[in-house]
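Hi D.,

Good news: the full-assembly prediction came through. Inputs first.
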Amino acid sequence: MPFQIILNLIIAVMWMFLSETYTFVAFVSGYLIGILLLLFLQRFIPDTFYLKRVFKMIQLVLLFTKELLLSNIEIIKMVYRKDQNFKPGIFALPTDLKSNWEITMLTSLISLTPGTLSLSVSEDNRIIYIHAMNIDDNDEAIKSIKETFERAIMEVTR
Amino acid sequence: MIETWIEIIVDIFIILLLLFGTFFIFSSTIGVLRFPDVYTRLHASTKAATLGIAGIMIGAFLFLFAEHGIVSGKLLLGIMFVLLTAPVSAHMIGRAAHHTGIKPWSSNDKQQDAYADAIKEQKNK
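Then the structure:
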């Protein structure tokens, strides 16, 4: 992936020199041409096309925005409720993610989604402890986190 | 004629965004006051405040762009940094609270605390 980005940048700079206009617009058009070239010559370049990963990243951001909106509506419902009969508690979420970067992403995403707040990560990076607003549906929460966020992060990083 | 209509619509949009942001920040403050313990209060302060700040920042960005033609990158960067820092600070405060021995509040006295159990298990080993 870094190799492809460097290649793309080199093509963009070369385009600037070829057309002899040293502006940002020329750079952007050169970059677009580089993307096209990379797309056509995909077979001869190692690794998959890097924009696929960028696309996945955009999908992750969109998913995150959606969950943020939903979580806010949920929290506001709880704030303005007359009786406070929710049952908070802490549950453990086993995770398959390995590197520090991935786990940081996952804990941040968990903190900003409905009814969950990551509290701590175990020493061996295998378990994340999460505080939930309603402990009763923690199985459902584990499942949804595993199926949406963990998978989305894996698609970006691997 | 059409231009004035577009201006009015943009203005209404900006006002709605600003109101949306202030409403969420207001609700998060009420949540901090009403919820029973540290952890639930953290829920209110991190989530709602983040979205509220994002709403106000986007509103201000649109206003500057529509009225003065300024593209203010600082506001967009501000949203990004709030999104990055709010969950981390909540994580740290929550962990610190747990380490000082604050137990999560429960409406019936049956607390579920997997983290405390794990710490106990580790000590016993």
